[in-house]
Amino acid sequence: MGENQMKVRYDPDSDILYLLIKEGDVEDTIEVSDDLFVEYDEKRDIVGIELWRVRRNLFGEVLKYLNKITELKSFIGEPK
Question: What sign results for the dihedral spanned by CA atoms 50, 53, 59, 62?
Answer without folding.
Answer: negative
